[in-house]
Amino acid sequence: MRSLGLLLAGCLALPCSPVAFAQAPAHTLNLVIVEGDGAINNVRQRTAREPIVQVEDENHKPVAGAAVLFLLPEHGAGGTFADGSHSLSVTTDAQGRATAHGIHFNHVQGQFQIQVTATFNGMTASTVINQSIAVGAAGAGGGAAAGAALSTKVIVIIVVAAAAAAAGGAYYATHSGSSSNSATPAGTTITPGTGTVGPPSIIIGRR
């Protein structure tokens, strides 16, 4: 009994094992979108934004070494990764970030979603990144609309000019008659007569 008591006393006097005070493992996993949500990828101009996510613990500290899976839709708007597949697995760096490099977007215009799943120490977190694909050149629709508006404007100007010319002609026709006495009323035709030339007439009167 005395030896057991000394053993217990020695354990209490010695510094505690580091395992006893080891930091408790994370119980939750958070997945935060850093870049790419709401991006418009123009395939004609080859403009795109790569999706970037960050894995964090319950204290919002970055988690390094987490496995992140990016999943593109198999149909409709979307694309494939560099190896031609619709999925890409990435391990988070020291900042807990993972980037989906090398997406080749297709030519199907519209919106799509990138499914993202992070796994670490048996915990899982997921999120969705919303993006869209634009096939036409930027500003093409605006240029066509501007051209149509310009054509309409030109037509309106021509019509207004023609109307103004017609109104001016009518004004001149109506007001020129009032200022000149030689004007002929509308609907009246003047036909010159035929003159007759003969000997002078002699009149003999009685006185």
What does this protein look like?
The protein has 207 residues and is α+β, with helices and mostly antiparallel strands. The protein folds into 2 domains: 16-134, Immunoglobulin-like (Sandwich); 140-166. Helix content is 25%, strand content 28%. The chain is built from 2 helices and 10 strands, in the order αββββββββββα. It has helices at 2-13, 140-179; strands at residues 29-35, 39-42, 52-57, 67-71, 79-80, 87-91, 97-99, 104-105, 110-120, 123-134. The strands form 3 sheets. A 5-stranded mixed β-sheet has the order 2-10-9-4-6, with no helix packed on it. The protein has a 3-stranded antiparallel β-sheet with strand order 1-3-7, with no helix packed on it. It starts with a helix and ends in a 28-residue tail after the last helix.
